[in-house]
């Protein structure tokens, strides 16, 4: 019997910075260190739910993080065999990127405008008041660290129109403004993985616009009551939205995913 495939976004879905945990958090477990500091956390109860979920499913972290950034995350228990990094740009098996999937991705990206053109748009001089830093990620997409308070009114809509005409999307997540090719999606990598594993049921979780393709594609999906999708009141048929926000939402959605996986196994 094939276990369900569970594809879960990381930042502000499963793991949380101290700035994102919310008010009066419960006991926390550090899952990421950077430059000698503890930077990302889950609750102790979330860790227990994750242990159960891993017994009942093929659990796959799925993130817009680069491979280097993902490698810093140490979830409780044995490292997952599979992971998806760079918003679907890399399908990882035991930490190594699958070269055949890389070739598929590069072919898909020929349908979008070149990265150099979009990166140049991000870095125009008039963006300097709010653009603090900028990065190119894995030679696949780019993003900026921004001062949200200084973002001009209407700028995001303007950038969304400009990028859409070139086959790209824009997503603001916390202090990061992402520019990502439309063809670079988490759901494409998850579909490839589901086919390889022979998965017949897929569960997914995410909190941002870059997760919507994944949430629509999955058989069942959940999002936290915070973040970009909460601001947009985004939904789909059957979508589960947590009652809690912040780090407690991560705990709640892991419990929900474990319940759905258990229900599927009981019926199989």
Describe the structure.
- By secondary structure, the chain is of the alpha/beta class.
- The chain has two domains: 5-107 and 184-267, Rossmann fold, CATH 3.40.50; 112-181.
- The chain has helices at residues 44-56, 67-70, 99-109, 115-122, 155-164, 186-197, 212-217, 227-231, 247-267, and strands at 5-9, 28-34, 37-43, 58-62, 82-85, 90-93, 96-97, 131-137, 141-146, 168-173, 176-181, 202-205, 220-223, 240-241.
- The strands form four sheets. Strands 4-1-12-13-14 form a five-stranded parallel sheet, with helices on both faces. The protein has a four-stranded antiparallel sheet with strand order 8-9-11-10. A three-stranded antiparallel sheet has the order 5-6-7, with helices on one face.
- α1 packs parallel to α9.
What's the architecture of the largest domain in CATH terms? 3-Layer(aba) Sandwich
Sheet of most strands: 5 strands, parallel
Shape: globular
How far is the first residue's CA from the last residue's CA? 8 Å
Can you tell me the CATH topology of the largest domain? Rossmann fold
Helix content: 25-40%
Could you name the key traits of this structure?
2 domains; 5-stranded parallel beta sheet; 4-stranded antiparallel beta sheet; 9 helices; 14 strands
What's the helix and strand layout?
Blueprint: E1 5-9, E2 28-34, E3 37-43, H1 44-56, E4 58-62, H2 67-70, E5 82-85, E6 90-93, E7 96-97, H3 99-109, H4 115-122, E8 131-137, E9 141-146, H5 155-164, E10 168-173, E11 176-181, H6 186-197, E12 202-205, H7 212-217, E13 220-223, H8 227-231, E14 240-241, H9 247-267
Parallel strand pairs: 1-4, 1-12, 12-13, 13-14
Antiparallel strand pairs: 2-3, 5-6, 6-7, 8-9, 9-11, 10-11
Helix pairs in contact: 1-9
């Amino acid at each position: 019997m094939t276990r369900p495939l569970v594809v879960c976004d990381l930042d502000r879905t499963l793991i949380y910075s101290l700035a994102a945990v919310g008010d009066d958090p419960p006991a926390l477990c550090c899952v990421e260190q950077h430059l000698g500091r503890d930077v990302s956390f889950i609750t102790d109860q979330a860790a227990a739910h994750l242990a159960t979920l891993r017994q009942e499913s093929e659990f796959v972290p799925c993130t817009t993080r680069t491979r280097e950034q993902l490698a810093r995350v140490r979830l409780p228990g044995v490292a997952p065999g599979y992971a998806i990094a760079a918003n679907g740009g890399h399908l990882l098996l035991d930490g190594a990127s699958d070269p055949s999937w890389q070739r598929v991705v590069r072919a898909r990206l020929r349908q979008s405008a070149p990265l150099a053109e979009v990166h140049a748009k991000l870095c125009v001089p008039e963006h300097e008041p709010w653009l603090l830093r900028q990065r190119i990620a894995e030679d696949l997409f780019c993003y900026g660290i921004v001062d949200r308070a200084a973002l001009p009114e209407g700028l995001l809509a303007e950038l969304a129109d400009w990028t859409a005409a070139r086959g790209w999307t824009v997503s603001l997540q916390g202090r990061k403004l992402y520019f990502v090719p439309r063809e670079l999606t988490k759901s494409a990598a998850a579909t490839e993985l589901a086919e390889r594993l022979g998965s017949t049921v897929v569960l997914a979780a995410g909190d941002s616009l870059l997760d919507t393709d994944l949430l629509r594609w999955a058989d069942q999906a959940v999002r936290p009551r915070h973040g970009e999708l909460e601001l947009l009141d985004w939904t789909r048929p059957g979508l589960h939205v947590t009652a809690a926000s912040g780090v407690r939402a991560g705990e709640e959605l892991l419990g929900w995913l474990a319940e759905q996986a258990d229900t599927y196994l009981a019926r199989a």
